[in-house]
Write a structure and sequence with these properties.
Its cofactor is thiamine diphosphate. The protein is α/β, with parallel strands linked by helices. The protein folds into 3 domains: 163 residues, 3-Layer(aba) Sandwich (Rossmann fold), CATH 3.40.50.970; 160 residues, 3-Layer(aba) Sandwich (Rossmann fold); 182 residues, Thiamin diphosphate (ThDP)-binding fold, Pyr/PP domains (Rossmann fold, 3-Layer(aba) Sandwich), CATH 3.40.50.970. The protein has 23 helices and 18 strands. Helix 23 links the parallel strand 17 and strand 18. The N and C termini lie far apart (55 Å).
Length: 542
């Protein structure tokens, strides 16, 4: 412990409380108002990682949180520091991430008189956080524990805490933090009336369909889901963030839905033909407008989630408010094995989807996804940025494990892949991590190459370099409009990577890409592989 932490400051109690609740990583850009906090975090065993901008720092914390399954921390200074983070905090809200945001704030004694860099932090973040607090010396541990409880309650989301430098440095009247309670999730009994009623309902239908979301993936519902799906022969589709909760090489897996009109034509038709839809930990925040009221009869929809419903995308006839895994386990023990979909419609849908997203050219976005999928293997972790490449990758990618493909799927912000990869690699250094990003996204957050260098993270960064904001260009074309504001110049990303201390290479064919992926896996530093192709390769792709 450093000399500056030899006494019991308010900041120390705050940090110890965070640590007791599982927080191990803080990301941010420091300012004078948070230096005591950063010192206390490190003394408490919470590593502080310097980012180059506050929005990527928030997304780094999100990536770490998904992998660690605990809340993680964003630290900002006053005014412009917190304002810089707004996009990242909004992303945490819509991505259901229990992000703790701690910002420095001007000391109370001068706040009413002083105007330099002063804004109302709580008011700024009011639409974006579940709660906002200011730390007082006598209640620091209880306030932090309360904030964490709110952040982790379903649907999870960010909370905000203001801490002034004077309060942070005060001697605290209490030494200890608040330890979180032991948390138990009781099993749902097979004999529970809700389970009996649902089991009877399942027994009476012939075409059941299962839609799975992020909550189920985070809640380790995969094994029970697989057992239920196989017992009742129900095809399974997921949101993009729940990919792999049922291995996508399983015959009953239909892959993911979310943003592809071509996939929707197949999957929505199947949903309408079904006579029961089990929505398990499903959050429609990831879905496009085509999934509004996606079946005519809401009575055939069953919603199984612990989260409070905050949408009007659909209206379920039955809602079971419980952890998805416990409900699935009870159902798997109560339903009787049966044949479903006698007409073979799910298999036909799966075949149609495979045809739609098949690779037709030896080089281009389809081939890049195929090769990366092969090289990443079952244990690789991939993050992907927003854009045309994300939609194509999310549809083509074959995920065999949950939480192995991370993205901003609710908020769909650009410049998410690189910070997500940084956070994920920090949380689990043993994982092979690949960041997949468009050239526009990388240029938006290119400074974080310095972060990945300084943290010495051997992440492989795959750039889809089509010299275009391709998704927007496609939308302009579909509206009958000429392209405007979507053309990018050709940045030499290989040279940029070398300038930041990593390895960089430009590739234009499949063999070179495969060779570079293999070589990247042997390096101790980061690698940027810029895959160059024509944006027209996306025409009709999704």
């Amino acid at each position: 412990m450093s000399q500056t932490t030899s006494f019991n400051r308010v900041a120390d109690v705050l940090a110890r409380t965070l640590h007791a609740h599982g927080v191990r990583h803080g990301f941010g850009v420091p300012g004078g108002e948070v230096v005591t906090l950063i010192d206390a975090l490190q003394a408490a065993g919470i590593a502080f990682h310097l980012a180059r901008h506050e929005t990527p720092a928030a997304i780094m914390a999100a990536g770490a949180s998904v992998i660690s399954a605990t809340p993680e921390l964003l630290v900002t200074t006053i005014g412009p520091g917190l304002a810089n983070a707004v996009n990242g905090i909004a992303d945490a809200l819509q991505e259901r991430i229990p992000l703790v945001v701690i910002s420095g704030v001007v000391d109370r004694a001068t706040r009413a008189r002083y105007t330099h860099q002063v804004i109302d932090h709580a008011q700024l973040l009011r639409p974006l956080v579940k709660a906002s607090f200011e730390i007082e010396p006598d209640s620091v541990a209880s306030t932090v524990a309360r904030a964490l409880a709110i952040a982790t309650a379903e649907p999870a989301g960010p909370v905000h805490i203001d801490l002034s430098p004077a309060v942070a440095a005060l001697a605290s009247p209490n030494y200890g933090g608040v330890v979180p309670p032991l948390r138990f999730v009781p099993s749902v009994a097979v004999t529970d009336p809700a389970i009996r009623r649902l089991s009877d309902r399942i027994a009476a239908v012939e075409r059941p369909l299962i839609i799975v979301g992020f909550e189920a993936a985070r809640g380790h519902a995969g094994p029970a889901l697989k057992q239920l799906a196989e017992t009742i022969e129900a095809p399974v589709l997921t949101t993009y963030k729940a990919k792999g909760v049922l291995p996508e090489d399983h015959p009953l897996s239909l892959g993911a839905a979310g943003l592809s009109p071509l996939a929707d034509r197949v999957l929505l038709n199947l949903a309408r033909e079904s006579d029961l839809v089990l929505m398990i930990g499903y959050d429609p925040i990831e879905m496009r407008l085509g999934w509004l009221d996606f079946v005519e009869d809401p009575s055939k929809l069953v919603d199984i989630t612990n989260a409070v419903s905050d949408h009007g995308m659909h209206h379920a006839g039955i809602r079971i408010a419980a952890a998805p895994r416990t409900v699935l386990q009870a159902l798997a023990g109560s339903v009787v094995a049966r044949k479903g979909w006698s007409g073979g419609e799910p298999a036909a849908a799966k075949s149609d989807l495979q045809g739609i997203f098949s690779t037709r050219q030896p080089w281009g976005p389809h081939a890049i996804v195929d090769l990366l999928n092969q090289m990443a293997g079952d244990d690789g972790l991939v993050t992907v940025d927003s854009g045309a490449h994300r939609i194509l990758l999310s549809q083509k990618w074959v995920a065999t494990k949950p939480l192995s493909l991370l993205q901003s799927a609710g908020f769909c912000t650009m410049n998410a892949a690189l910070p997500l990869a940084i956070g994920a690699k920090v949380a689990d250094p043993s994982r092979k991590v690949f960041a997949v990003i468009g050239d526009g996204g990388l240029e938006m957050g290119i400074g974080e190459l310095a972060t990945i260098r300084d943290l010495k993270l051997p992440v492989t960064i795959v750039v889809f370099q089509d010299r275009s904001l391709a998704l927007i260009a496609l939308k302009q074309a579909s509206a009958g409009l000429p392209p405007a504001g979507v053309t990018l110049g050709e940045t030499d990303f290989a040279a940029v990577a070398r300038g930041f201390g990593g390895h960089g290479v430009n590739v234009e064919n499949a063999n070179a890409f495969r060779d570079e992926l293999e070589a990247a896996g042997e390096r101790a530093s980061f690698t940027v592989i810029a895959c160059r192709f024509d944006a027209r390769a996306y025409d009709g792709a999704f």
